[in-house]
Every structure is written in C-alpha cells, then in structure tokens.
Amino acid sequence: MYFNIQRFSTHDGDGIRSLLFLKGCSLACPWCQNPESRSAKHSLLFDQRSCLNDCHRCSDTCPSIEATPEGIKIHRDTLDDSQIIALRNVCPTQALTVCGEEAQQKMLFDTLMKDKPFYDQSSGGVTFSGGEPLMQSDLVTSLAKQLQAEGVNTAVETCMHVPWKNIEQAAPYIDCWLTDLKHTNERKFLDWAQGSLKRIKSNFHKLAPIAKRIIIRVPVVPDFNDSPEELKDIIDFAADIESCTELHLLPYHTLGINKYRLLDMPYLCSDKPLNNPDLLEYAQQYAKQYPRINVIVRG
C-alpha cells in the first residue's frame, strides 16, 4: 500500500532520488506532516471549498456520506475501507480524494527504475518513506535488494519504532538510514508520540554496528524538544551511534496543517513555525566536541 512516488527529489538522500511513500505508521506524532499516511488502509480527504454541494454523487455512492443543506457530512465513525475505495474518482471536482493505492512490486520497481540515468549521473537513488516504510518490511527488503542488484543506491526514512526483525531484514540492502530521534525522555516521548522510546533506542544500538551509514534527523518542535538541554541529550545519544556521521536539525514548520482539516483531524501543535536561530546555533556549537558528527540545520 503506497500513496505517492515523488520523482526528481534532491532531499532525503544523496543526488537525484525517487521517493516511495508507503502507508502506515506506528507512531502518532501530533506535528506529522503526512497525517494521511498514518493509517495502513485507504484514507479519505475532503476539501469543502471544491465541493459543488448539489451533485450528490458521493452520498449516492457511500452510505456514510450524508447530503445536507449545509453541504455533505462524512460520518467517519462508520466509514470503512471498502466504502473509501468505492469513492475513488467519483467526485467531479476532486473535493473528495482517496489516499492510498495497492500495487504489485513489479509495477513499483519498474516505475522507480525509469529514472536510473538520473540516479547514475547524480549519485542518487531511491528512498523509502512514509508513514513508516518498515511496517511493510517484506516489500522494502525485496525492492531494495532488486534495486541494489541494478546498481541503485537505497535509503530509508524510518522512525525506528518497529520490531527489530523488520530492520534486520532490510539492513543488508539499505545504503543509508535516515533515522528519526525525537527525544531521549521516555515519558515525554510516550505522551507526545504514543510510542516506546526504549524500543527505538534498542533498535539504534542494534543497527549501529551493521549499518553502512546512519543520519539522525531531529524535528525541533516547540514545547516538545526545543530546549538546549533536550538537544544536548539527543546529540550525546547520537555520538554513541558508531555509524552516525551526520545529525540534521529540522526546524518545526506548519506546511501540513491543512491536511488535518481535510481528514477531519484536530491539529494539536503550534500554528507558528519554530523561530529560534540561537537554539540551533547552540546545538551546532555543542556538537563540535564530537568531531565525527556533522550537525546540519535543514530548512
């Protein structure tokens, strides 16, 4: 189950890359910029601004959609996956859109291989993203193995919040690990992201001796980890991960807020981007005591 293939990307790994976005995530970070990726099944997005209000094609198709004088009303508590699939391409204005599509591995491989000349010229490749791509570890492992056999560089963006067997299975076929480390405090991480930091730390220590390259990425989020002490602890942890050569600080932004409205989900984080250059400069200066790790601020 995937929801996008982004071609000609120059982020999320070296060179020109294609990004395969897979659905499903094991965390619930309230600042997530891809909330449509959380569910492993199809997701339904609705933009009232584009709705004709009187065509009723969606309500005629789906029993969980009601046509009212004020516009359509989606009863998401009764909306199931089969109903969402039936709504694909029903709306003439695309006010209703379905996120998620099932595909055979061969189709994905063939699509990703179309840009191999660009990978070769730029030392680029393919990056698996999401959601949490390693929730579909069989697919990632098999595709990465195929890609490497064709000389394509592979990378994976992962929150590391999956069973170790999922990571171990893919590890031989991943050239670069773009790993999230959001906090070092178990309680705060659980409260905000609803996950186990113990599992993530354990996976980091198991991966370190076998990974070819690890880049740790830190979303710097207001009121969550935007203090000097919290960033110091994260940098100290990264310094113990032997395969880690870079740490990227990702200042919080609000570009994904509109998606929450389309999904009828509350947005629980700040409505203003992080604006604290002194904090980011402090973190970069602090990290200089660890010469192996290059700390970069990514806008």
From TrEMBL:
PROSITE patterns: 4FE4S_FER_2, RADICAL_ACTIVATING, RADICAL_SAM
Cofactor: [4Fe-4S] cluster
EC number(s) per entry: 1.97.1.-
Domain Radical SAM core: 11-292
Gene3D superfamilies named in the record: Aldolase class I (3.20.20.70)
Entry annotated with the keyword Metal-binding: yes
MF terms (GO), sorted A to Z: 4 iron, 4 sulfur cluster binding; metal ion binding; oxidoreductase activity
Alphabetical keyword list: 4Fe-4S, Iron, Iron-sulfur, Metal-binding, Oxidoreductase, S-adenosyl-L-methionine
Superkingdom, taxonomy of origin: Bacteria
Pfam hit, one: Fer4_12
Residues annotated as domain 4Fe-4S ferredoxin-type: 42-73
InterPro entries documented for this protein: 4Fe4S_Fe-S-bd, Aldolase_TIM, BssD/PflA/YjjW, Organic_radical-activating, Organic_radical_activase, Radical_activat_CS, rSAM, rSAM_sf
Entry keyword annotation includes Oxidoreductase: yes
Stated family: Belongs to the organic radical-activating enzymes family.
Protein name listed in UniProt: Benzylsuccinate synthase activating enzyme
